[in-house]
Amino acid sequence: MTEIPEHLLKRAQEARDRAAAKGAETAAADAPAAAAPAEDVSPEAAAAASKIPPHLLERAKAARAKSASTAVESAAPAAAVATAGGAVATATAPPPTGPGGHTQRLLTVVKSGSIQDVKAMPVDKVHVWPHLLVVEFVAALAVTAFTLIFSIFVNAPLLELADFNATPNPSKAPWYFLGLQELLTMFHPMVAGVTLPGFALILLILAPYIDKNPSNKPEKRKFAISLMTVHLMFWTVLVMIGSFFRGPGFNFVFPWEAGLFFEL
Amino acid sequence: MAPTPPSADQVKQAVSDLADRTQSSQAWSSIFRPGSIFRKGYTDSPRNRSYVIMNSVLYHLHPVKVKRHAVKVSYTLCLGGLSFFLFILLTVTGIFLMFFYRPTASAAYADMETLRSAVTFGLLVRNMHRWGAHLMVLSVFLHMARVFYHGAYKSPREFNWVIGVILLTLTLLLSFTGYLLPWDQLALWAVTVGTNMMGFTPVFGDQVRFVLLGGVEIGSDTLLRWYVLHVLMLPFVTVIMMAIHFWRVRKDGGISGPL
């Protein structure tokens, strides 16, 4: 069901109340007319109650009388043949008029564009099959082939059995945490290991609610893009330093001098 | 007298008859729903192109039609789809590895060596699992960067970005929990460094460390705990999050753009 707005319901109720009050008045003033069947309401009374110009009402009355007389005429031979059905045949259909002689009602006025709003712009679309599925399939094949071939030629590292008594020097976290380990050299462990990454994660989650700029055009969101780029580069540099430029004791070294202390 | 060998035409005819009979069989048409490209009489028409998606399980992932710019590789670089595909690849190779691995401190390392030397394709599958995992961390990270640079997290896609950040975290956790399982020096000490950092969580740092390690020190309990996290709990949560992620992509009006 469509929701009908509150103010329209209220307006309709008021109109109904007014009409009921008016009907009660006419009934009190002209009791016999009200008692008579609806189709026998005198034209004068109807004209008084309606706003239809009198000449139109006259014309309508003449047309009704004429059609009724022709109905009687055409029914006469039929009544001669079958007397039993005559009464039914001569009965005229009541004219389709509403209260007050109106033949039509105005329900509501609808401004254009208010409810018959058509979707603004048709979008240029393509079928998922074959256009998108083929792209996805090729991409999946390519990445499978890459992983397979890379795995044939490069073995994943497996060092000696875990030994609690032999701490390797340096000890490094997995590469994606080496940025954090790098921060450990600068800050207190609580700041580097929990506060900063936690803060970054929360900021990342809140990004769409902080960024109120509605545009997705790069030229209109220079600030957001610069900020993100600076942070991504900062992070990448930290991971790079942690991975390749940290040697024994997690001291800064150059990989081309001291060698590589990095396992994936 | 030996029977004459059938001519090429006869062979062709027999093959096409067989294909025809197979495609007309009840079993075949019960497997491939109307509109499938494997059904008899499939022709390339807009109606059939719609049915391929609508009448298959793919309809849960893709609509019948997408915006033309959405199929441009230069826009998405396929990064989201590849992350999902790598997840599937890692699930398949991971299930294979589970057949040959016991998560106890006494057996894990020996199982790794057996896997590398005695199991058919064991070395290859383990390599694929490891490199695939690193690749997935990379692709999820790049996917996030791509989405940010396209401003694709803006209304109405804010919440899907939040789900995405959760998925990134889950990916890192999946990778990190897997790191311990070989039980070699690399695994032990990388995890020691990582969990020591988490031990510095304010107020309840020791408790966090205890729950993560299943004790005060890394040991057999840690291995079992991280194994269950790695093969069961984290993938379970990830699959649910991915389902919501993909569903929201469709509900929010397909992928964003064009710029």
Please tell me about this protein's structure.
- The complex is a heterodimer of chains A (264) and B (259).
- With 264 residues, chain A is mainly alpha-helical.
- In chain A, 57% of the residues lie in helices and 1% in strands.
- Chain A folds into three domains: 6-101, no CATH class; 128-158, no CATH class; 168-264, Helix Hairpins (Orthogonal Bundle), CATH 1.10.287.
- The longest helix of chain A has 28 residues, at 54-81.
- With 259 residues, chain B is mostly helical.
- Helices cover 66% and strands 1% of the residues of chain B.
- Chain B is built from eleven helices and one strand.
- In chain B, helix 6 packs across helix 7 (122-149).
- The radius of gyration of chain B is 25 Å and the shape is flat.
- The mean pLDDT of chain B is 92.
- Chains A and B meet through strand 1, helix 6, helix 7, helix 8 and helix 9 of A and helix 3, strand 1, helix 5, helix 6 and helix 7 of B.
Secondary-structure blueprint:
The complex is a heterodimer of chains A (264) and B (259).
Chain A: H1 6-29, H2 31-35, H3 43-49, H4 54-81, H5 86-90, E1 125-127, H6 128-153, H7 178-184, H8 189-210, H9 222-244, H10 255-258
Chain B: H1 8-24, H2 26-31, H3 46-54, E1 65-67, H4 73-76, H5 79-98, H6 108-117, H7 122-149, H8 158-180, H9 185-198, H10 205-213, H11 220-251
Q: Determine the mean pLDDT of chain B.
A: 92
* Coarse shape of chain A: elongated
Going by helix content, strand content and strand pairing, the class of chain B is mainly alpha
Task: Report the average pLDDT across residues of chain A.
Answer: 80
Distance between the termini of chain A: 61 Å
